Amino acid sequence: MRIAILVVSDRASKGEYEDRGGPAIQAWLEKTVTTPFECERIIIPDGFESVRDTLIDLCDAKAFDMVLTTGGTGPAPRDLTPEATLAVFTKELPGFGELMRRRSLDFVPTAILSRQTAGIRGKTFLLNLPGSPGSIDVCLMAVFAAVPYCLDLIGAGYIETDPSVLKAHRPGK
């Protein structure tokens, strides 16, 4: 199982800001996923082309099973992660974004401004996450139970979770 964590941030890519989103995603995966996995963290600047081109490379050339992005999902002018991600998908899975926003609204009213989405490209599952570590945890807890079965359906690597943290759902099991 190969997982890429793509951090999208102008400031973090320049070293002006310590990325907290990427480490939060990796820590969440390490406590939840029981299947051995390889994780690579990449930090790039905001922007449509930078995100699109990096996602295509991670999916097509590097063949990651899953790409989790953090950052660039708000309404600011440079927040273009969802637009770039949509340009990469072969299929969008809008339910992921809908549920992440719904769950996040239980904690913060500005969650309605978030524009995360999910989808697939070939045999890679892609998921946009917010930049805040607390929001990352809320969002992953909301949707990750469906991720292992999604990976099964698209022919990506197999993944299992620790049921004491989050039970993966596979129909008929």
TrEMBL record:
Swiss-Prot/TrEMBL catalytic activity: molybdopterin + ATP + H(+) = adenylyl-molybdopterin + diphosphate
Boundaries of every MoaB/Mog domain copy: 4-150
EC number: 2.7.7.75
Protein's pathway: Cofactor biosynthesis; molybdopterin biosynthesis
Keywords: Molybdenum cofactor biosynthesis, Nucleotidyltransferase, Transferase
CDD domains given in the database record: MogA_MoaB (cd00886)
Xref: SUPFAM superfamilies: Molybdenum cofactor biosynthesis proteins (SSF53218)
Pfam families the record matches: MoCF_biosynth (PF00994)
GO molecular function list: molybdopterin adenylyltransferase activity
Enzyme category, top tier: transferase
NCBIfam families per UniProt: molyb_syn, PRK09417.1
Listed PANTHER family: MOLYBDENUM COFACTOR BIOSYNTHESIS, MOLYBDOPTERIN MOLYBDOTRANSFERASE
Functional summary from the UniProt entry: Catalyzes the adenylation of molybdopterin as part of the biosynthesis of the molybdenum-cofactor.
Protein name, per record: Molybdopterin adenylyltransferase
Organism: Roseibium porphyridii
Designated gene of the protein: mog
